[in-house]
Amino acid sequence: MAKELVLASLRMERNPMAIPINDPSKLGIDLKMLKKLDDHIELDPMYIVPKSKREILNRLAEQIITDFESRGEVESQEDEDREEVIAHRVVSMTKTKYEDFLIAFKQYEQEFYGLRDELVDQYDEMIEEFRSLYCKVTGCNEEEWNKIKKMIPSKTQFRDSYKISLDRAPFVLTSDDLGEG
Question: For residues 36 and 26, what is the distance between their CA atoms, to the nearest angstrom?
Answer without folding.
Answer: 18
